[in-house]
Specification:
GO terms for molecular function: ATP binding; sequence-specific DNA binding. Keywords: ATP-binding, Nucleotide-binding, Phosphoprotein, Transcription, Transcription regulation. With about 450 residues, the protein is of the alpha/beta class. It folds into four domains: about 1-100, Rossmann fold (3-Layer(aba) Sandwich); about 125-290, P-loop containing nucleotide triphosphate hydrolases (Rossmann fold); about 295-375, Helicase, Ruva Protein, domain 3 (Orthogonal Bundle); about 405-455, Arc Repressor Mutant, subunit A (Orthogonal Bundle), CATH 1.10.10.60. It is built from 21 helices and 16 strands. A hairpin with a 2-residue loop joins strand 2 (about 40) and strand 3 (about 45). Helix 11 (about 230-240) crosses helix 13.
């Protein structure tokens, strides 16, 4: 009755069902914009109603009332398809926020083109990509935390942004932070903010990224890079939806959806004691795994042609085309760096081709490896590896900790800097030394933030 009075004061018309059977009957008689259910009902569980609504009325968001601190049940409700949950006793501000999100409809402009945004952003017709797009559509409707896993270069950031765009938080901020790119000393201030004078160099108040994400989504990329101490602080913010800036004695209410991603296996890290079990349990309510490029078949050529059109347009050159040998070559690669690696290969091919056709010779580099073929077990003991001294030297070294793509970008940037320094930053001469077009050099300099005014 108190809930109904509160909603009435908010201008919301409601029907109150006293048991599960009555609630199901109401759904056959009326069309509802949202539903709130208690977990404990006289003739069943609120989870039963959640499953019923999700199955028969998928466009009606349903939230669940739970006893304070009962996170196991709350997460079970979210996994069953609940839109969100609220702890009892009910916080009126939280109730208002939940209903505001539930009654909000994402901007229809997202799908004004010939195809839905998820098909335009996630290119591919393969079965794994169709399954991925379907999962994203379902997950976007919820308020549940999402954990995205996948190899480096598969596009975890793209998927996170798409979930936000398809959600009812799409008109609020989408805030991104790479947990591995900020030092431990600065990370707490970046996440939670600080007040002026709380430490040396704090010359003014700073709003943290979590607060900036209020009403929207917070994407924590490479969350496994957080220290255990920082994980504990993040857990409190996620559970209680409150933060306290450094140096402040006041807590700030924040409403955000957390989306996290990692290329590491978080479950293994939990077993090793490197990742908190309670935080893993809290952020891993909904999970999405992005398939590696090598498992996507003809999507490789679809993406390749997409990148060719995109790069040629950006560089202002006539559209190029892959010949049959180049297409066959691309289909045979292993793609350790996934979509990011394919884009780099295509960029190289466009740069090196002098006419409108891109040949296999334009795509080949020393770092591209074909898909490894399985070795018959009976021959494994007699295989003898022979390699040149240079190959042996590389094999003896440790693999780059930052991953292949970041390592190659570091090398590429170093080569560009050497060429520029040797020509006293004469970019035209540097392009000649590197045997590339001036336009291609400009493109790469922009990528690394090295571009200056035109000569």
């Amino acid at each position: 009755m108190l809930m109904q009075m509160t909603l009435s004061r908010m201008g919301i018309k409601t029907h109150m069902a006293h048991h599960l059977k009555q609630a199901k009957h109401f759904f056959t008689e009326y069309k509802y914009d949202a539903c709130i259910t208690d977990l404990n009902l006289p003739d069943g569980s609120g989870l039963d109603l959640v499953k019923h609504v999700v199955q028969h009325y998928p466009k009606t968001p349903i939230a669940v009332l739970t006893a304070y601190g009962n996170m196991d049940i709350a997460i079970a409700a979210l996994k069953a398809g609940a839109f969100d949950f609220m702890n009892k006793p009910i916080n009126q501000q939280h109730l208002h926020q939940v209903l505001q999100k539930a009654l909000h409809v994402p901007e229809s402009a997202l799908n004004t083109a010939d195809s839905p945004i998820e098909e335009r952003v996630l290119i591919g017709h393969s079965a794994p990509m169709k399954k991925l797009r379907s999962s994203i559509q379902k997950i976007a409707r919820s308020q549940a935390p999402v954990c995205i896993t996948g190899e480096s270069g598969t596009g975890k950031d793209v998927v996170a942004n798409l979930i936000h765009l398809l959600s009812n938080r799409s008109d609020a901020p989408f805030v991104v932070i790479n947990c591995g790119a900020i030092s431990e000393e600065l990370l707490e201030s970046e996440l939670f903010g600080h007040v002026k004078g709380c430490f040396s160099g704090a010359l003014e108040d700073k709003v943290g990224l979590i607060q900036l994400a209020d009403g929207g989504s917070l994407f924590l990329d490479e969350i496994a890079e957080l220290s255990l101490a920082m994980q504990a602080k993040l857990l409190r913010a996620v559970q209680e939806k409150k933060i306290r800036p450094l140096g402040s004695d006041k807590e700030i209410d924040v409403d955000f959806r957390i989306i996290s991603a990692s290329h590491q296996n978080l479950e293994h890290l939990v077993q090793q004691g490197k990742f908190r079990h309670d935080l893993f349990f809290r952020i891993h309510v909904m999970d999405i795994t992005i398939p590696p490029l090598r498992e996507r078949g003809q999507d490789i050529l679809l993406l390749a042609n997409h990148f060719i059109a995109k790069i040629c347009s950006e560089w202002g050159i006539e559209l190029k085309k892959l010949n049959e040998d180049a297409e066959a070559f691309l289909m045979k690669q292993y793609y350790l760096g996934n979509v990011r690696e394919l884009q780099n290969i295509i960029e190289r091919g466009i740069t090196l081709s002098d006419d409108q056709l891109i040949d296999i010779a334009h795509l080949q580099t020393s770092t591209i490896r074909p898909i490894p073929q399985p070795v018959p077990i009976e021959h494994t003991q007699s295989i003898e590896i022979q390699a040149s001294p240079q190959t042996t030297m590389i094999a003896d070294n440790k693999l780059p900790e930052e991953g292949l793509e970041e390592y190659l970008e570091k090398v590429e940037k170093e080569v560009l800097m050497n060429a520029l320094n040797s020509t006293h930053w004469n970019r035209t001469l540097a392009a000649k030394k590197l045997r590339m077009s001036f336009r291609s050099l400009r493109y790469r300099l922009k990528k690394f933030g090295l571009d200056t005014d035109d000569e």
